[in-house]
């Protein structure tokens, strides 16, 4: 299978001792990879390095064969991402915000902007400035921005933050349909473990900056009743969660 | 190159969509109107000549390059860097297929274009005001010198902007950058007066360098020296600012 993302010996430590250590991970074409871990385990750090927001101390990330450290423009050419909170320029409308992003991709026209606004249920707010948007609306716009360029790889950090139930279902459907129809590869971190179970086909657990295990969702669900049980048992083995939590 | 153009276009769009630029334009025009009113008042009230049609734009330039133009350059620069750092909106651009060097250069180019736009606007309106209110003593040669003076002022203003860019990359808070910029500006002004023999080393003195082009003898050596000092400091400030910007974590 074609490797889409290669994380190689990735290390980044912070002054407080947290960070990621010697992370190795391969993501294959068409994967919807769920990245799970407790708070402060290093999920966002890894994703920030993957998207060039911070530099690693050691190691590299290759996206579609290009290093994010040495060939950033090529590595990011077919990547869409949403890291932490979806940001937008508050003095611009939803449409203008997407137009700003569209300029970096020659194939994205106004029609495509309308398409992603429709896809994320934001079309009715097209000409509204994002200043007054709710958290959920901002998040939807962030997701629209992430898939705007028809990327082959989408990296999403907590994509369901602030979304209502309807929003969560919409986004889940969108992810599944893009993965199926366009073979888009997803790398998703989320605290909403139930949603990860429903969406992702491979799961990686990170704890204290190290990968504990990577497994197919189907294989996990053969041995455990739910993904939550698996997660707790994985983390528990490393002494983090008490058995009463399960 | 295409991504640089995209980034530059985005920066320009952000710039003109913010109200700050509108305020800058209105205040620049206010300076011209107030200046002209004062001159008309002096002329009719005291019978003094004030300025001629070509002298008025020069008077405006001498005032704005030391006051509102550095102020607005600081505001626009701080907004472009510190503003986007604090709102995390820098991530919108950073996660696109564009290198940090191109983002940094596009931001600075848009600021330089803002300065150029402000200078041209001031030139046009001050000349109009000059011709309307003091329609005398205009010659083709002095007109050329006026236009040239406005155009060369872009250089020291750019160096000033690069200095503020460096500060904006060092300090997190935009307000801190603004106050430190003003303090350094004032300190350089005072130092330039106290140690006049070294004044060409203080960047604030360069703001008036357009005067060198107005002298009849045309001091080529001095112009070349000033130009090289500005070029050198500009390159150093640009590189130092980029070094920090490139290493920044978002």
UniProtKB/TrEMBL annotation, chain B:
Going by the UniProt record, its keywords in alphabetical order are:
Membrane, Transmembrane, Transmembrane helix
UniProt keyword annotation of Signal present: no
Q: Name one Pfam family in it.
A: ABC2_membrane_4
Q: Does the keyword Nucleotide-binding apply?
A: no
Residue ranges of the TM segments:
21-39, 59-81, 111-135, 147-168, 175-203, 223-245
PANTHER family (UniProt xref) = INTEGRAL MEMBRANE PROTEIN-RELATED, MEMBRANE PROTEIN
The name this protein carries in UniProt is ABC-2 type transport system permease protein
Q: What organism is this sequence from?
A: Desulfosporosinus hippei DSM 8344
């Amino acid at each position: 299978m074609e490797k889409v993302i290669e994380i190689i010996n990735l290390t980044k430590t912070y002054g407080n001792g947290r960070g990621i250590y010697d992370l190795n991970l391969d993501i294959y074409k068409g994967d919807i990879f769920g990245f799970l871990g407790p708070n402060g385990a290093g999920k966002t750090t890894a994703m920030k390095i993957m998207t060039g927001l911070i530099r690693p101390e050691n190691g590299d990330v290759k996206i579609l064969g290009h290093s994010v450290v040495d060939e950033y423009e090529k590595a990011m050419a077919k990547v869409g991402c949403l890291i932490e909170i979806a940001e937008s320029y508050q003095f611009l409308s939803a449409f203008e915000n997407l137009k700003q992003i569209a300029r970096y991709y020659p194939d994205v026209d106004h029609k495509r902007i309308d398409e992603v606004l429709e896809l994320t249920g934001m079309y009715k707010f097209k000409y509204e400035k994002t200043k007054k948007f709710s958290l959920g609306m901002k998040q939807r716009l962030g997701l629209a921005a992430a898939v705007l360029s028809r990327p082959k790889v989408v990296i999403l950090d907590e994509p369901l933050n602030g979304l209502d139930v309807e929003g969560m279902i919409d986004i889940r459907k969108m992810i599944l349909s893009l993965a199926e129809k366009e073979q888009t590869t997803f790398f998703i971190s989320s605290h909403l473990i139930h949603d990860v179970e429903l969406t992702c086909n491979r799961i990686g657990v990170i704890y204290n900056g190290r990968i504990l295990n990577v497994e197919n969702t189907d294989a996990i669900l053969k041995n455990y009743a739910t993904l939550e049980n698996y997660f707790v048992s994985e983390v528990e083995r490393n002494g983090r969660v008490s058995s009463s939590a399960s | 190159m295409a991504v640089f153009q995209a980034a530059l276009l985005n920066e320009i769009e952000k710039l003109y969509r913010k109200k700050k630029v509108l305020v800058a334009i209105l205040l620049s025009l206010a300076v011209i109107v107030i200046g002209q009113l004062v001159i008309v008042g002096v002329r009719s009230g005291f019978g003094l000549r004030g300025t001629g049609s070509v002298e008025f734009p020069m008077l405006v330039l001498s005032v704005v390059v030391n006051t509102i133009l550095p102020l607005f350059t600081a505001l626009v620069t701080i907004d472009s860097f510190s503003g986007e750092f604090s709102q995390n909106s820098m991530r919108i651009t950073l996660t696109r297929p564009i290198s940090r060097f191109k983002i940094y250069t596009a931001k600075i180019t848009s600021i330089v274009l803002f300065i150029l736009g402000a200078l041209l606007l001031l030139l046009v309106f001050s000349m109009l005001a000059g011709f309307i209110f003091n329609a005398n003593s205009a010659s083709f040669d002095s007109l050329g010198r006026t236009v040239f003076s406005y155009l060369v002022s872009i250089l020291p203003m750019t160096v000033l902007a690069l200095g503020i860019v460096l500060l904006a990359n060092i300090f997190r808070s935009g307000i801190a950058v603004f106050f430190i910029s003003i303090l350094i500006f004032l300190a350089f002004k005072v130092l330039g007066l106290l140690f006049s023999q070294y004044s060409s080393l203080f960047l604030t003195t360069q703001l008036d360098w357009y005067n060198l082009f107005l002298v009849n003898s045309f001091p080529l050596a001095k112009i070349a020296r000033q130009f090289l000092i500005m070029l050198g400091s500009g390159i150093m400030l640009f590189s130092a600012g980029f070094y920090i910007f490139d290493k920044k974590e978002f």
